[in-house]
Amino acid sequence: MTNTTVYPSHYINGQWVKATSSETLPVHDSSTEELMATVPSGTAAEAEAAVLAARKAFDSWSALPVETRAAYIDKVAAGVKARTEELAVAIAREVGMPLKMARAVQVGGPAWHWGNFAKIARNFEWEKKVGNSLVVREAIGVVGCITPWNFPLSQITLKIAPAMVAGCTVVLKPSEIAPVNAMILAEIIHEAGIPAGVFNLVNGSGPEVGEVLATHPEVDMVSFTGSTRAGKRVSELASQTVKRVALELGGKSASLILEDANLEAAVKGTIGACMLNSGQTCSAHTRMLVPASRYEEAKALAQATIAKFGIGPSLEETSKLGPLVSAAQRDRVLGFIKTGIDEGADVIAGGAEPPKMDKGYFVQPTILGIKPTDTLAQEEIFGPVLVVIPYKDEEEAVAIANSTIYGLGGAVWGGSDERAIQVARRMRTGQVDINGGPFNANAPFGGYKQSGNGRENGVYGFEEFLEFKSLQLKPVAV
Ligand code: NAD
Q: At 54, is the pLDDT very low, low, confident or very high (cuts 50, 70, 90)?
């Protein structure tokens, strides 16, 4: 596959509009390093045109009956399903997740969410009597959506689907590193016949296009998923126009294994939750906390488990772990592994030598035994790197779990669910998996502390895009 797809346009006001600048952003296949596509590098003026189109469309779109909007959203769900293979291959190539998993997680998930948000809007209690008031829920307005590259279609879907079905109009700036899936989605939305201006897409860099969305007075809300560093910048800028800001940021989640846990299940579960998408998952369980008395046993189990995680090109069916998204990400992760080793880590598996692959941004899956004060116990690495931290008692384990600036995901493994739940209640984090409890796409997902302040998924993610309005009624004389 050597063909490069050139996308020359942005999607503004219901049309593909040729980019004004000839500057483009390259998209690389992370397994082969080939240039697979280019998208235009948008300008501030293009971002503004998209914002104004969204503003113009808002009044009529938000006034439509919910059923009409939900029917459009269902059409998008059907379109995503129909183009599953094309989307899965694009994401497998641009992100690097093995194709089989990309089909299920990167496309199956979003297709389900589109349909689910249509259902949620249909069943939602849009108004309610409270004393002498009628409390009405309304769309917040124009929403600027800024998204990252690791689960690109999911992160886009979790913003624009609930926002649009709620009655908002949107301007999307997808990640410049994995934007191809967004271009396919824009085609699907166009084919679904969604009215002009309701959905707009401008590709480009964060500082050029993203910052227009964060600052523009006609944008009522900015919904941002990405790094804590960029999230802080977006918040700062958005404060000048008092927009609502929803932030879904980084993580350094702990998998806390209690001494009476089934250690084998806990170690396997933790490694699975760390290595998904080659560790490029915001809620990845990247710190495994084990009782010091069981450290050697945990180490042996970890070595046996990681040996089964074969790396390979994302389009090969046998690959369990693909490459990292880019050369820059690979180099960053290798830098972290070196720092860990320099600080005296116990190298349980892997290391900083690149695996023997002809091409692609591969890193060996790596497991390092470290102390809670080491750099790798604090920093989000965003690669296939698990750190194992021994602790002496439950108090210390909880303290270590809560000792980073983040609070996104986590797990507790214990002899009983009751005991694990007790410990989970003490963790300052948005989600905790109890003894391997699976992900629930209707449960709220989001962060404590510097992992953010928004919630996505299900009705919780839908309500983020609504305002409250209270209509005070004169009590009826009896
Ligand atoms: P990033 O912060 O570099 O980029 C995310 C998006 O923000 C991109 O579209 C980028 O162009 C844009 N951006 C960058 N600077 C900006 C600025 N000054 N103004 C406006 N927009 C700007 O993050 P990334 O590398 O794409 O993604 C990885 C990060 O995302 C990790 O930290 C990960 O934990 C986080 N993440 C969080 C969640 C969550 O739900 N909490 C989900 C996925 C990823």
A: very high
Whether the pLDDT of residue 44 is over 60: the answer is yes
Q: pTM of the entire structure? A: 0.98
Q: Is 80 exceeded by the pLDDT of residue 478?
A: no
**What's residue 317's pLDDT?**
87
Ligand 1 site, residue 408, Cβ cutoff 6 A:
yes
User: Looking at residue 330, what is its pLDDT?
Assistant: 98
Task: Answer yes or no: is the C-beta of 234 below 6 A from any ligand 1 atom.
Answer: yes
Over residues 298-322, the mean pLDDT reads 96
The pair of three-digit structure tokens given for residue 228, joined into one six-digit string: 């804590």
Q: Is the model's pLDDT at 329 over the cut of 90?
A: yes
Protein residue with least CA distance to atom 13, ligand 1: 206
* Confidence class for position 2, pLDDT limits 50, 70, 90: low
Which ligand 1 atom is the nearest neighbour of the CA of 237?
19
Ligand 1 atom at shortest distance from the alpha carbon of 149: 26
- How many angstroms is it from 207 CA to the middle of ligand 1? 12
Asked if 237 and 211 count as a contact pair (C-beta separation under 8 A), the reply is yes
Ligand 1 proximity of 233 Cβ (cutoff 6 Å): yes
Nearest CA to ligand 1 atom 17: 206
Contact 204 CB / ligand 1 (< 6 Å): no
Using the atom order of ligand 1, give the atom closest to the CA of residue 451. Answer: 41
Residue 380 near ligand 1, beta carbon < 6 Å: yes
